[in-house]
Specification:
By secondary structure, this protein is mainly α. Helix content is about 70%, strand content about 0%. α6 runs antiparallel to α7, α39 packs parallel to α41 and α46 runs antiparallel to α47. The longest helix has about 30 residues. The radius of gyration is 44 Å and the shape is globular.
C-alpha cells in the first residue's frame, strides 16, 4: 500500500488543508483586498481558536493590530470609525486576556510596537482640549483601557519606561485630562481615569529614581509636568465632593493622586543632588559658602526656573492662576524644607522662603497704600500663613545667628512682611491674624516698631463678627499677652493699649476690649507677672483716667473711653495675684497708695461729676460716666475686702470708717438709693455693691443686731427687685460673661447670673415674695424647650435654671426648693380641674416637720386625707371601684404633664420636709385616681407614660426621710388600696395600652411602688398584719369581682404584679418564733392565701393563651416558687420543733418534688424560659427576670436535676452559653447582668458533679482555641471568654475550685495565642483583645495565693507585650489601655512574691503604656485649623499612669533599682515631643513618685549617661520634684509615726 492510501494519507491531507486555511488567514490579514470587517473577524477568530497553529501567533496578531492603528493615524489605510473602534477594542481584549497573561508568565516574549505609546498619548491629547462628547467618550474609555493593560504588564510597560519623553508626555496628558473632568460640574462616577493615572505615576516614580541625569528630570518636570501637577492638585483639593461622586474616588483615589504628585515633585525638584545648585543660586552673594563647587551647566538657576514656570499663566486660566500659585507655594516650600533643611542649611531655607514670598505678589508696604493690591487676599494670606508656620516649625530663624552672621537679613524681610500686613489690614480673613501671630512667635521685635498699629488694627478697632475670625484674633492676642509677659514688658503693651483707647476714633463702633478667652489668658499672665509690674499697669490706668475725668462732663466720647479703661482696670485688678503677708513692704505700701489714689483721684471725682446738675439729665455721657464710677467703686470694694482677708499688714485707706460703711460701701448719700433711669451696667454694679455690703456685714465678728438683720433683708430684696422686671421675658438672650458686653438686652442674664452665683448668701435673708419670684422664674424657664446647642459657651437664664435643678445644693436651699416644688405642683393641679382634690394652701406656706401647728392646718390636712379615703375591706362584688372620678387629657396636656413629672423627679423628692412630702404624695395619689386614658393609641400611650412616672415618684417618696408622715395620717392598707383601685377600675381603658411598648415599663413601676410600700409597712411594725391582710383581701375581692369582666387580661396582669411584689417582700421578713408567734402565724396564713390566689391568676392567664411566654408570668412563677419554698421551710421547722419536744429524732427525706404542689408549673415554665433565653437579648429586664427564675429553680434539688437533659443543670448551662453566643449581645448588656449570671453559674457549679464541672470547664477552654478564630467562629470565642470571667468571679470552693484552677494554665496560654492572632484580625480583633485582657486581669486577681508558678505570670506579661497600641482609634486605644493597666495593677496587687523576679518585664510593659500616652498626648496647634484640646480618653490614660506610679512607689523594696530606667525612658521621649499641659501634669506627678525610689548613685548615673539635651530635661524634672514633691513628702514623714 502506497503512502497516499490509508489513514496516514487522510491525516496528511487534513493537516495540509488546515495549514492552507490558517496560512490563508495570515495572508488575508496582510492583503489590501480583504475588507476590514473581515480582517477583524478573522483576527478575533485566530486569537480565540485553539486550533490555529501559526508560528508565534500572538506576536503576529499583536503586530497586525498595532500596524493597523499606526497606519490609520499616519493616513495610509482609510476605514470608518466603527473599524477604528473595533481595532482599539480588539487591542484592549488582547491586552487584558488571561491567555496572554499566562503566556507571559510562562516566559514567552511578546513585544508591543513603540508607536502605539505615541498613538495613545495623541488620542488622550485630543480629548484634553475639550470635554469628549458621548460619541467619542466610549472610544476614550477604550484607549484608557488599552493604556491600563500596557501599564499593568511589565513586558509592555517597557515601551514607556524605555522612552522617558513618552512617559512624561503620558503623565502630562492624563493629568490635563483629569483636570478637564474636575473643572466640569458633572459627577465623577468612573474611577478608570484615576486608576490609569496612578499606574502612570508608579511607573514614572520608578523611572525617575533610575534616571542618572538628575538635571534632566528637573527640566522635564519644570517644562512639562509642573503646571499640570499643580493645577490637578488644586482642583482635587478645592473640589466640592458630593454623594453622587464615586465613593472610591472621593475617599481614596483622589488622596492617592495628591500623594503621588508630592512624591514626584519632591523627587524631581528637590533631590539631594540638587542641593549644590540651589546653594549656588541663592547663596552666591553670601560668605557662608566655604568653597564653590564646579557644577554642571544644565541646572544653573533651579529656583528661578521653577518659579518662572509657576508664575507663567500657561495652562492656568486667569481666575485660577492666583489660587493655584497660592496653593502650590506652601507645598513646594514644605518639600524643599523636608529635603534640604538640615543642620547648616537654614539660611538656604530662608532664601527659598524669600523667593516664594515674592511669588505671592503682595504689594510693597507704603504709607499711602499706593501699591497695587491683589483682587482676592484670602489665597495669598493663607499661603503666607503656611509659609510662616513652616518657617517657625523648621527653626529657620535664629535671632542671634541672623544678627551676627547675616546682618539681620531675615529680620529685615520678616519686618517687611509685618509692615505689609499692617499696611493692608484684612480683619475679615482669619489667616491675616494667624500670620501676625506667627511673626510674633518668630521674634516680637518684628512687630515692635508697629505695635501701636497692631494693637489698633488687630485688637481695639477690629470689627470681628465671624466666629472663625474671632478664634484667630483671640489666638493672636493671647500670644501677644503671653509673649510680653515672658519678656516682662506687659506694662509696655498696656501703655500702647491705653494710648490707642485715648486716640480720636469711631469709638461708637468699638467692641469690648476683652473677650472671655482673652480674660482667661490675662489672668494666667498676671499670675506670672511680678507684683511690681502689675502695680505699674494699675498706675498707668489710673493716670489715664485722671487725664480723662476733668473734661468728662458733657463729652460722650470721653465717657466711653473712661468706661473702656475702667473695664480693663477691673479685669486687671481682679485677676492679678493677691498680696499676702509674704509681700515685700515697699510693694504693699505702693499698693496702699494706689488704693488711696484710686478712691481719691478717680472714683470720687467720677461719681461727683455725675451727681452734678449737668449729669442728672441722664444723657449718654452721664450714663457711661455713672457706669464707670460704679464699676471702679465696686472693684475697689472687692479688692479692699480681698486684701484685708489675705494680708494682715494691709491697712485700708478708709481707716476705721471703711469698716463702718456697711451695706452702702462708701457710696455718697445720693447713690444709696436706686438712681432713676440708670443704665443696665449701672444697675448691675449697684447689685454688686449691695452684695459686697452684705458680705462685709456678715464678716464682722460677733452677733448681728436687729437693725443689721433688717438691713440684710432689705439689701437682699433690693438686689432681687432691681432685675425683677427684666428677667420675666429674657429667656431668649445670652451673655458671654464679660462686663463690657452688659447692655439692655444682656442685663437680665447678667442679673440672673449674679443671683445664682450668690444664692446661698441671699436666700436666708429674702422675704417670701422674692423667694416666690425666684421660684416662678426658675419654674417658667425649666418648662421652656432645651436651648440651642450653638450657644453653649454663653450664659442664658434657662441654662442656669437647668444647672440649678441638677445641682446637689438645691435641696439644701429649703425656701427655694419648696417654692419650685409648689409651683410645679400647682401646674400639675391645674391640669386636673373639676376633681374633688384641692391643694391645702395652709400646708404650702412654710415647710414643716409634718406636725400641725394650728387648727386650720389640721382641717386642711383632714380634707386632704379625705381624698385618700379610709374604707373598710371590700367584700366580693363591692362597687367601690366605680366611685373614682374619671378625667382625660389631650395629647398636648399629657406632654405638659410628662414634662412636669420629669421636673418633679429631678427635685429629689426623697429629701422633702414633712408637709411638702405629704402634699406631694396626696397630689400624686390624686393624679393616679383621676387620670384615665382615651381609646386612641397615641393618647393612651402618653397617659400610660404619665402614670408610670407618677408611680416612680410615689416610689421615691416612699423611700424618703419623711415617709412616715403619710402613714401617720392614713392607714397603709387604705393607701395601697386607694392607689391600686383606679387601675382595676380603668381596665377597659388600659386594655388598649396592653400592647404598647411602655406597658412593661408601667407594670415595672407599679411593682416597684408596691414593693417599697410593703417594705415600709413591715419596717414600721405598726398594725403590719392588719394592713397586709386588708390589702390581700382587696386583691382577692378584685379577682372575684373580675370573673365576668371581659377586660380580665389587664386585671390578671395587674394582679400578678401586685401579688408577686407582695409575696416576695413577705417571704424576706425575718421572724423570731419564740417572740412573734402570732405575727408568724399571720404571715404564714397570708403566704398561703397569696399562693392560692397567685396560682389561680397564673392558671387563668395560662388557660387564656395556652402558654407562659410573658416576662410578667415568669415573674409571677418565680414569686410563687419562692413563696412555696418559704412555706415548706417553715413547715419543716415546725415539724422539727414538734419532734424535738416529743423527743423523737426526725430525719428529713428528699421530698422536694412531692412537697412542692406546683412542680409541673415550674418545670413547664423552665422549659419555656430555656427556649426563650437565647432569643431575648434585646430586653435586659426580661433576661434578668428569667435568670432570677433559673437561679431559684436550679437551687431547688428535685426540681432541677444534674442529669436531666430538658430542665436540668446541663440545659441551664447550655441556655446561658447560647445567650452569650447570640450575635446581638453586647458587652454592656453582659455587664448589666453580671450579678445575676454569677449567681446562676455559682448555683450551676455547686449542683454539678466534679466530672460534669470538669467537662464544662474543658469545653470553655476549647472555645478559647485559636482555630475558632481561623474558622470564623468569633462569637464562640467571645462567649467562652465571658464564661471564663464569670466562673472566675464565682465564690467556688472545694473540688469545684480545684477543677477550675487546674485548667487555668491552659486558659492563660490560650489567651496569649488569641491576643497575637487578634492583632491580625480586623473585624473582631479589638473585641477579642479587650475581652482577653479583661479575663486575664480577673484571673490574676482571683488567683492570689493560687497562681504560684512564675511561668504563668511571665506568660501574662507576654500577652501584654503582644497587644498593639499604635494605629488605633481613640476609643479603641482607651479600652485597650485600661485593660492592660488593669492586668498590670492586678499583678502588682495580687502577685507580690512573683513580681520581684519579673520586675524588668513589668517595667517593659509599663513603659509601653507611658510612651503610648506621650505619643497620643502631644500638644496640637490651638487655633482656627485643628483640634483645640486633648481628648478625655488620653487624659484618663495619663491619670491611670500616675495612679500606677503611685502603686509602684509603694513597693519600694522591689522596684528601687528599676525606677531610674523608667524615668530615663520618660525623659528620652519627652525631649522628642511637646506634651499637652494636662497630660504632662499627670505624667510628671507619676514620675515624681518614681523618683522617690531613685537613690543618689542612680541619680549620678542618670546625669552622666543622658545626652546633653536630655540632661537638661531631666534637670528640669528633678528640680520640680525637689521643689514641689520631695519637700511635701519630707514634711509628711516628719509627722508620721
Amino acid at each position: 500500500m502506497s503512502w497516499t492510501e490509508g489513514p496516514v494519507s487522510v491525516l496528511y491531507i487534513s493537516m495540509t488543508i488546515m495549514a492552507t486555511i490558517y496560512s490563508g488567514i495570515h495572508l488575508k490579514l496582510k492583503s489590501t483586498k480583504t475588507p476590514w470587517e473581515d480582517k477583524l473577524k478573522l483576527a478575533r477568530f485566530a486569537w480565540i481558536s485553539h486550533q490555529c497553529f501559526l508560528p508565534n501567533k500572538e506576536q503576529i496578531l499583536m503586530d497586525w493590530v498595532c500596524r493597523a492603528l499606526s497606519g490609520y493615524y499616519s493616513k495610509k489605510p482609510q476605514f470608518g470609525d466603527d473599524i477604528l473602534e473595533g481595532l482599539w477594542t480588539y487591542l484592549d481584549d488582547i491586552l487584558h486576556s488571561k491567555k496572554l497573561q499566562k503566556l507571559i508568565e510562562k516566559g514567552k516574549i511578546i513585544t508591543l510596537h513603540a508607536t502605539i505609546a505615541q498613538i495613545i498619548n495623541d488620542r488622550i491629547r485630543e480629548h484634553c482640549s475639550n470635554m469628549p462628547s458621548n460619541a467619542t467618550l466610549s472610544n476614550l474609555m477604550t484607549v484608557l483601557n488599552c493604556c491600563h493593560g500596557i501599564l499593568t504588564s511589565p513586558a509592555f510597560a517597557i515601551i514607556y519606561s524605555s522612552k522617558w519623553e513618552l512617559l512624561v508626555d503620558l503623565l502630562c496628558m492624563l493629568s490635563l485630562l483629569l483636570c478637564c473632568r474636575l473643572k466640569s460640574t458633572e459627577a465623577l462616577r468612573c474611577k478608570q481615569l484615576f486608576e490609569v493615572l496612578l499606574l502612570a505615576f508608579d511607573l514614572y516614580l520608578v523611572a525617575q529614581r533610575q534616571q542618572r541625569s538628575r538635571g534632566r528630570v528637573f527640566l522635564q518636570i519644570c517644562s512639562h509636568l509642573l503646571q499640570p501637577f499643580l493645577l490637578l492638585r488644586h482642583l482635587l483639593s478645592s473640589r466640592c465632593w458630593t454623594s453622587e461622586d464615586d465613593v472610591a474616588v472621593r475617599q481614596h483615589l483622589s488622596k492617592e493622586v495628591a500623594h503621588k504628585i508630592q512624591a514626584a515633585l519632591q523627587g524631581g525638584l528637590f533631590h539631594a543632588d540638587h542641593l549644590n545648585f540651589y546653594r549656588e543660586e541663592l547663596l552666591q552673594d553670601n560668605g557662608s559658602q566655604e568653597k564653590k563647587v564646579n557644577l554642571p551647566k544644565d541646572l544653573v538657576a533651579p529656583i528661578e526656573t521653577m518659579l518662572s514656570k509657576l508664575t507663567n499663566a500657561g495652562l492656568f486660566s486667569p481666575d485660577l492662576h492666583s489660587a493655584v500659585v497660592a496653593g502650590s507655594v506652601p507645598l513646594l516650600y514644605r518639600l524643599s524644607l523636608e529635603s534640604y533643611c538640615r543642620e547648616g542649611n537654614h539660611l538656604l531655607g530662608f532664601h527659598i522662603f524669600a523667593r516664594f514670598f515674592d511669588t505671592l505678589g503682595f504689594p510693597e508696604p507704603t504709607g499711602v497704600r499706593s501699591g497695587q493690591e491683589p483682587a482676592d487676599w484670602n489665597p495669598g494670606l493663607i499661603a503666607l500663613d503656611q509659609l510662616l508656620s513652616l518657617t517657625l516649625g523648621s527653626n529657620i530663624y535664629n535671632v542671634a545667628v541672623d544678627k551676627i552672621r547675616c546682618g539681620g537679613l531675615q529680620f529685615t524681610l520678616y519686618s517687611r512682611v509685618a509692615e505689609t500686613l499692617l499696611s493692608y489690614p484684612r480683619q475679615e480673613i482669619p489667616a491675616w491674624f494667624r500670620c501676625l501671630r506667627t511673626l510674633i512667635l518668630l521674634n516680637h521685635l518684628i512687630v515692635e516698631p508697629n505695635l501701636d498699629d497692631l494693637v489698633s488694627l488687630a485688637w481695639l478697632d477690629a470689627d470681628v463678627s465671624d466666629p472663625r475670625v474671632g478664634r484667630a484674633q483671640e489666638s493672636l492676642l493671647c500670644t501677644l499677652l503671653e509673649t510680653y509677659t515672658k519678656l516682662r514688658q506687659l506694662p509696655r503693651l498696656f501703655q500702647e493699649v491705653l494710648a490707642i483707647i485715648a486716640r480720636p476714633a469711631a469709638d461708637e463702633l468699638r467692641r469690648p476690649v476683652l473677650s472671655a478667652g482673652l480674660t482667661e489668658k490675662l489672668h494666667a499672665c498676671l499670675l506670672e507677672l511680678p507684683a511690681g509690674q502689675a502695680l505699674d499697669i494699675w498706675d498707668l490706668m489710673l493716670k489715664s483716667l485722671e487725664v480723662l475725668i476733668p473734661d468728662l462732663s458733657g463729652d460722650s466720647d470721653l465717657a466711653l473711653k473712661a468706661l473702656a479703661v475702667s473695664t480693663l482696670l477691673n479685669a486687671v485688678l481682679l485677676n492679678m495675684k493677691s498680696l499676702d503677708d509674704k509681700t515685700p513692704v515697699p510693694v504693699l505700701k505702693r499698693a496702699q497708695l494706689l488704693m488711696d489714689k484710686m478712691t481719691r483721684a478717680v472714683v470720687t471725682p467720677l461719681l461727683r461729676t455725675v451727681s452734678e446738675p449737668s449729669g442728672k439729665d441722664r444723657s449718654p455721657w452721664a450714663l457711661r460716666a455713672e457706669s464707670s464710677g460704679l464699676l471702679l467703686h465696686s472693684t475697689w470694694v472687692q479688692l479692699d475686702h480681698m486684701l484685708k482677708l489675705n494680708c494682715s499688714k494691709y491697712v485700708s485707706p478708709g481707716g476705721a470708717e471703711a469698716g463702718e460703711q456697711g451695706l452702702h460701701c462708701g457710696l455718697p448719700l445720693e447713690w444709696r438709693g436706686v438712681p432713676g433711669q440708670s443704665s443696665a451696667l449701672s444697675c448691675h454694679f449697684l447689685q454688686l455693691l449691695a452684695i459686697q455690703g452684705m458680705k462685709s456685714v456678715m464678716m464682722q465678728p460677733g452677733s448681728r443686731t436687729e437693725a443689721e438683720e433688717a438691713s440684710l433683708r432689705s439689701a437682699a430684696a433690693r438686689v432681687v427687685r432691681l432685675g425683677e422686671d427684666a428677667v420675666k421675658n429674657a429667656s431668649a438672650w445670652a451673655w458671654d460673661g464679660e462686663l463690657g458686653t452688659i447692655n439692655d438686652e444682656t442685663y437680665a442674664v447678667a442679673h440672673w447670673h449674679l443671683l445664682m452665683s450668690n444664692l446661698a448668701l441671699l436666700l436666708p435673708h429674702l422675704p417670701e415674695p422674692e423667694v416666690s419670684h425666684l421660684a416662678d422664674v426658675v419654674t417658667a424657664n425649666l418648662l421652656l424647650p432645651e436651648p440651642d446647642r450653638g450657644s453653649e459657651d454663653c450664659l442664658s437664664i434657662p441654662a442656669m435654671c437647668r444647672s440649678l435643678l441638677r445641682s446637689s445644693l438645691l435641696p439644701e436651699m429649703q425656701p427655694l426648693h419648696h417654692g419650685v416644688l409648689l409651683h410645679l405642683m400647682e401646674e400639675v393641679s391645674s391640669l386636673l380641674p373639676g376633681t374633688r382634690f384641692n391643694l391645702p394652701a395652709c400646708l404650702l406656706k412654710q415647710p414643716g416637720d409634718g406636725g400641725d401647728t394650728s387648727q386650720e392646718a389640721g382641717s386642711q390636712q383632714s380634707s386632704a386625707l379625705d381624698s385618700l379615703g379610709s374604707h373598710p375591706s371590700p367584700t366580693p362584688g363591692s362597687s367601690l371601684l366605680k366611685e373614682t372620678p374619671n378625667h382625660t387629657l389631650s395629647e398636648h396636656q399629657l406632654d405638659h404633664l410628662l414634662q412636669l413629672l420629669d421636673l418633679l423627679g429631678a427635685l429629689r423628692l426623697d429629701s422633702l420636709s414633712g408637709a411638702d412630702h405629704f402634699h406631694c404624695f396626696v397630689l400624686l395619689v390624686s393624679l393616679v385616681m383621676t387620670l384615665k386614658p382615651k381609646l386612641e393609641k397615641a393618647n393612651a400611650t402618653k397617659c400610660l407614660q404619665a402614670l408610670s412616672r407618677t408611680y416612680v415618684l410615689l416610689t421615691v417618696l416612699q423611700t424618703g426621710t419623711s415617709r412616715n408622715v403619710v402613714f401617720k395620717r392614713a392607714h397603709s392598707g387604705d393607701i395601697l388600696e386607694k392607689v391600686m383601685s383606679p387601675l382595676f377600675a380603668a381596665s377597659s381603658q388600659l386594655a388598649s395600652c396592653a400592647e404598647c411598648p411602655v406597658w412593661p415599663e408601667f407594670l415595672d413601676a407599679v411593682q416597684r411602688f408596691l414593693t417599697v410600700s410593703a417594705q415600709a409597712v413591715i419596717e414600721r411594725k405598726q398594725s403590719m398584719c392588719l394592713n397586709l391582710e386588708q390589702f390581700v383581701a382587696f386583691l382577692s375581692s378584685t379577682w372575684l369581682s373580675s370573673a365576668k369582666n371581659k377586660w380580665r387580661l389587664v386585671t390578671e396582669q395587674l394582679l400578678i404584679t401586685a401579688l408577686s411584689a407582695l409575696s416576695r417582700v413577705i417571704v424576706k421578713v425575718p421572724l423570731q418564733p419564740d417572740k412573734t408567734r402570732h405575727t408568724g402565724n399571720t404571715l404564714h396564713s397570708l403566704l398561703i392565701q397569696l399562693v392560692g390566689l397567685l396560682v389561680e391568676v397564673l392558671q387563668s392567664h395560662s388557660d387564656r393563651d395556652g402558654r407562659l411566654e410573658q416576662n410578667l408570668t415568669v415573674l409571677g412563677v418565680t414569686a410563687l416558687l419562692e413563696t412555696e419554698l418559704c412555706l415548706r421551710e417553715v413547715e419543716e421547722e415546725e415539724e422539727d420543733v414538734v419532734h424535738k419536744e416529743a423527743g423523737v429524732i426526725h430525719e428529713r427525706g428528699n421530698q422536694d418534688t412531692q412537697s412542692l404542689k406546683h412542680a409541673d408549673l415550674y418545670q413547664r415554665t423552665c422549659l419555656q424560659v430555656l427556649h426563650r433565653l437565647p432569643s431575648s437579648p434585646d430586653d435586659p429586664e426580661s433576661v434578668q427576670t428569667q435568670l432570677e427564675f433559673l437561679r431559684i429553680y436550679g437551687s431547688t434539688s428535685g426540681l432541677c436535676s444534674d442529669c436531666d437533659n430538658e430542665t436540668g443543670i446541663p440545659s441551664v448551662l447550655s441556655a446561658v452559653k447560647a445567650l452569650l453566643t447570640a450575635p446581638q449581645v453586647t458587652q454592656q448588656f453582659i455587664q448589666s447582668l453580671e450579678a445575676q449570671l454569677v449567681e446562676l453559674l455559682h448555683c450551676v457549679a455547686e449542683r454539678c458533679t466534679e466530672q460534669q464541672f470538669y467537662l464544662i470547664v474543658k469545653s470553655i477552654a476549647q472555645g478559647l482555641e485559636v482555630n475558632n478564630l481561623w474558622n470564623g467562629q468569633h462569637q464562640e470565642v467571645v462567649s467562652s471568654l465571658n464564661l471564663t470571667t464569670l466562673f472566675l468571679k464565682c465564690p467556688l470552693s472545694g473540688d469545684v475550685e480545684k477543677t477550675l484552677w487546674f485548667i487555668v494554665p491552659q486558659i492563660i496560654m490560650a489567651l496569649m495565642v488569641l491576643c497575637k492572632e487578634a492583632a491580625l484580625d480586623q473585624p473582631w480583633g479589638f473585641k477579642v483583645t479587650v475581652l482577653s485582657l479583661e479575663t486575664l486581669a480577673v484571673l490574676v486577681r482571683q488567683g492570689e495565693g493560687i497562681l504560684s508558678n512564675p511561668h504563668h505570670v511571665a506568660v501574662a506579661f507576654d500577652v501584654l507585650l503582644c497587644v498593639p497600641l499604635d494605629h488605633l482609634r481613640l476609643d479603641e486605644y482607651g479600652s485597650i489601655f485600661r485593660a492592660i493597666q488593669e492586668v498590670l495593677f492586678a499583678i502588682l496587687q495580687s502577685q507580690p512574691k512573683i513580681l520581684f523576679n519579673a520586675a524588668p518585664t513589668f517595667f517593659q510593659c509599663f513603659n509601653r503604656l507611658v510612651l503610648s500616652v506621650m505619643h497620643k498626648g502631644r500638644q496640637k496647634c490651638v487655633g482656627d485649623k485643628g483640634v483645640t484640646e486633648v481628648s478625655e480618653v488620653v487624659l484618663e490614660c495619663a491619670y491611670l499612669v500616675e495612679r500606677m506610679c503611685t502603686q509602684i512607689a509603694s513597693k519600694e523594696e522591689k522596684f528601687a533599682m528599676f525606677s531610674s530606667f523608667a524615668v530615663a525612658e520618660y525623659v528620652t521621649e519627652l525631649q522628642k515631643v511637646t506634651l499637652d499641659p494636662d497630660v504632662k501634669r499627670h505624667l510628671t506627678l507619676g514620675m515624681y513618685h518614681l523618683l522617690d525610689l531613685v537613690t543618689e548613685s542612680d541619680l549620678r548615673f542618670l546625669s552622666a549617661s543622658l545626652q546633653p539635651g536630655m540632661r537638661e530635661v531631666f534637670k528640669e524634672l528633678y528640680n520640680g520634684y525637689t521643689h514641689y514633691h520631695k519637700s511635701k513628702k519630707q514634711g509628711e514623714e516628719k509627722y508620721t509615726a
